[in-house]
Amino acid sequence: MSETIAAIATAHGVASISIVRLSGPDALSIARRIAPHASLEPRYAQLQTLFDASGEVIDRGLVLRFQAPRSFTGEEVVEFQCHGGQIVAQEILEAALHHGARLAEPGEFSKRAFLNGKIDLSEAEAIAKLIEARSVDAARILARQVRGELGRFVDEAREALLRALAHSEVMIDYAEEDLPEDLVAKLQEQLTELSERLKRIVESSERRRGLIEGFRVAIVGKPNVGKSSLLNALLSYERAIVSDVAGTTRDTIEEEIRIGTHILRIVDTAGIREAGDRIEAIGVERSLRSVEEADIVLALFDRSRPWDAEDEAILEMLRNSGKEWIAVLNKCDLPTRMATEKLAPYEPVEIDTRKNFSALPERLKAFLDRYNVDEELMLSSRRQIEAVREAQQAIAEALPPLHAGELELFSYRLQEAATALGKITHPYESEEILDRMFGEFCLGK
Question: Which domains are assigned to the chain?
Fold first, then answer.
């Protein structure tokens, strides 16, 4: 990290302000050539004239210095806040490159912050996801991780594992000495509690992942019950083709909407029935796959048509799917011909997609708000979930050897668990792995 890096830290486009960031050992000397009249007093914003490499005026903007190690990267950092647009910021960046800086790679500022101990990997991941957050729920969860909540939990869990490991080593080294009789029982109790907590965190994170990624909602039903009409009604525009001809929708259609604080990825599927041709069969197969991939299923039934074998097959499929689903009775403006007692236990929502369907978004909002009340810590990435699952399994596998007095194997499993948890905050992977992880960040971050 001997090089000084530079990048535009704001998105491309027209805006009131753009930010160009410098970080590294030569940040001050380069900044003084761009803003020669600035005193560069730490944490003091100065309005200065900014010059290019040939001495021509670029702009008048703010110059801010963040002194090492009290900066985001832990290095000397200087930021230029100039008038927004694609030209001015680019000219400042080109001047910085001319004076010796190197163009930063995507995520390189955050990578330097991590390597300099300013943030751990869980905070870095949360920052990257927070930038792209599209819902209030995601922003709240990630803000907690940016403040170090996950890192503190990992540190506490690893400390508990290391204490247990130290006790194990004492028992191995001093097997002939008198040790507290209840030591093994206490270790087993503490580790069982930790293992169960880790398991709850994994399960809660899996269950609530839609708060960050968006909940995947599949609309299913037999042909011509109004699935595409419901999608159009939710979107407030004609996204899907609507026709009285059964089988009009032959492929899945996916769009995003927001209900309350939640982002929903709505999937309109082909009607589920015995397919009449190969193309329709492929559509039905994709519909069934959408049910498997969905977090929630909206099962649409036509109240104006008699209950038949196709409705029965869909109901049976949902009962056996293990998915959370909401029964929806459509076309409630028409005379009722369906015997609705089959769906009565599921408290179906009655709607008319052409006139009144507000009850469905309200039911969905109430349904999804349940995920906000879970007080368990949440993991924000698949990598974090796999690391905690690996640690939990290692602890669970350590308990039988402890009970049997096989302390070497017990210690080995605890070391595995501690290493797995360490992957969340301070992994021991190679530089190449870190480059790949931080390379997914946006440029200038």
Answer: 5-120 (3.30.1360.120), 128-207+379-425 (1.20.120.430), 212-373 (3.40.50.300)
